[in-house]
Each structure stands twice: as C-alpha cells, then as structure tokens.
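Feature request, filed as a ticket because there's no other form

It would be nice if the structure record came with a short human-readable summary line next to the tokens. Right now we just get the raw output. Example of a typical job, pasted below so the devs can see what we mean:
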Amino acid sequence: MVRWMTSDELVAYPQALETMQSIVSDIQSGAEECIWLLEHPPLYTAGTSAKPQDLLVHDQLPVFATGRGGQYTYHGPGQRVAYVMMDLNKRKPDLRWFVKELEHWIIRALAEFGLDSFQRDGRVGIWTNTPTGEAKIAALGVRVSKWVTYHGIAINVHPNLAHFQGIVPCGLPQFGVTSLYDLGVDVTLEAVDKILKKTCTF
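Raw output as currently delivered:
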C-alpha cells in the first residue's frame, strides 16, 4: 500500500527535504511507501548536473542545491510537485526503469485532460506540442538511498512561466516551457491530484 499525503500550504524547500529524508528512513525500516503532493514557494533547484552558467538571474529567487539528478529547474505556486518515495527493493532495483515509470505516469495523467505528451531521447522530462514548437510541461528528478527513491515529478498546471526565464531549464536553451493553463486547459490542482491518483500504478 502507498500512503498519499497532500500539503495545502506552500512548503519551504528545506522543510520538504527534511521531511522526505525522514520518510525515506522510515521506509527503509519497513514503513509504507509514500507519495507527497505539494507546492513550493517560488525557487530554483540545482540538480547534480547543474551548470553555473545556466543560472541566468542570480538575485531573483532563492536557489537550493539538491542531490537529485538533473540540472536547474523552477518550482512555485501553480505547479504540482509529487515526491515519490518508493522501495525499489520490493519492486525492481533499476533506476532507469523507475524514471520511465514516472514518465509514463505523467503521460497517462495529462492524457486524461486531453493533452498529448511524450518523451524525447536525450531530453529528461515530458514534452508536448505548442503553437511555437515542442515545450516541456513536466520535469522529473530522482535520488535513491539504499534503493528507496525520493524527489520526483513536477507538472506545470498554472505556474508563473516568466520565472523560468531566470534559468536554462534542464540545460536546454533551444526549448521552451509550457503549462496546462497556457495550452488552454484550466484545471485546479485538486483535479490534477485526482487524476494522478487514478493513473498511478505504483
């Protein structure tokens, strides 16, 4: 059984890290797995592959180094973050498999809103077509500790897309970022949560 948690208030990034690490420790001791749905206040995170030159604006928002994979990303209100804490020892101790499962989950969820999205070789995250070309609509980054996962996915529901201009998202300057709202899908985070639970196969 997977336990679902939802935070109604914005969660500071250091608090989220501390909570995730505590849950991971509990799972390693036999507690049930957990998916935590939340929003962060506006901030940037730098993954283990982040390049300093990809932080374009240094004084706009706080920046947090994080142990997840990937490069720079933005988190903020209107973006549904799902931190996924799973024991791969009980499932499949294969990080590549787990990342693909996360990607497929996002694609299934977005399809429920009538949105066609897809993976691209060499580009982490989930992409969709927009009037100006392909753009990223969801990001993901994962870390494991003794094969228990944490961090997870972030779906752009209705965030302030201007904040993405302070970074080179995921180190790909040639591609833009979009959201459900930007593509004409005006839904609440609660509606997204319902669909995430419906389409989750963990």
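Something like this underneath would help us a lot:
The helical segments are 13-28, 95-111, 189-199.
The mean pLDDT is 95.
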